[in-house]
Specification:
Order of helices and strands: EEEHHHEHEEEHEHEHEHEHEHEHEEHEEE
Number of strands: 18
Distance between the termini: 45 Å
Oligomer: single chain
Strand content: 15-25%
CATH architecture of the largest domain: Alpha-Beta Barrel
Helix content: 25-40%
Largest sheet: 10 strands, mixed
Number of domains: 2
Structural class: alpha/beta
Radius of gyration: 21 Å
CATH topology of the largest domain: TIM Barrel
Length: 402
Amino acid sequence: MKIKGAYLIVCSPDRNFVTLKIETDEGIYGLGDATLNGRELAVASYLTEHVIPCLIGRDPFQVEDIWQYLYRGAYWRRGPVTMSAIAAVDVALWDIKAKAFNTPLYNLLGGKSREGVLVYAHANGTDIAEAVDSVQKHVDLGYLAVRAQSGVPGVASSYGVPKGGKPYEPAERGLPSESLWSSERYLNFVPKLFQAVRSACGEDLHLLHDVHHRLTPIEAARLGKELEPFHLFWMEDPTPAENSDAFRVIREHTTTPIATGEVFNSFWDAHDLIRNQWIDYLRMTIVHGGGITALKKAADFAAIYQVRTGFHGATDLSPVTMAAALHFGLAIHNFGIQEHMPHTALTDEVFPHQYTFNAGYLHPGEGPGLGVDIDEKLAAKYPYQRAYLPVARKIDGTLTEW
């Protein structure tokens, strides 16, 4: 079997996606997600101009060698654009291989380690009352784990809270919008939110919270300590992770579990965090972290230190990546939890898939490969539209992490 061709489908069924399709001379094809929120066309260009020509004529079963060729052979390594492109190729090759063996992808990753993949939903509100109500609604839908976010009094456009009652979706068409932020007001508010949620929803529900990189290490340590009575499943991205030592400060002050890594694009971003046991959950994504081949190595290393996975799963990843994450999570031993933001009905129509939700768990399905396809004719009706994530400024105008 040889790769005879590959091309991209760039579309925007309610949001932008970049999908790689690799075709073989035996009629089997595979799909890979190459979406990089706000920089989609950079990855599309990298694939079209530099990667796809190198794939033609290769054996798609040689997944490891092709990964190494694209990573080491280019000399200029890492970075979100490069790693997203490599991931798209890698996932598409795994899809082809599993289809050729007529088996679900998880069987090539070691088989099932569990019966389903525990997922968490996003609940939010403009104030505590709305947030509590949203958490309860997700519990009623069957979720066993819920991330809770709320508007902060005196802070405009609080992270994690939708506009106009719509499902939360940060990417906005046009140029980036700006919001204001106050760490001081946020720190005083969040413990009150979780006191209310825990009181209303009981002790058994898994509760999560996303700080979104906005605190200094000692501020994050304070928050983690004040949230200890509410025993969160995790506190996500408490501080920017460029400086791994910052997480040592947090760890020394709180027993609240820590998750980070959704912006990582290499195992090396997480190496010290895992080795020093400064985090409990690795949040890397299959698409931005270099694909299944790369993440399997990262997960195996993390397992040595009892660090579990908790992959990013927002709607800035297509159903192709969600399916890959579910097969991965079903198979590996040190799986923790999977983020689940349901896609819109239109996105699901463009990307028909076999994965299903039931009673708090997702399952990737029993079809061969990933169990996801793309309706190219329908996708063509929704062309790419430039969109960006917002940016954030402190109340005095200083640009800060969004």
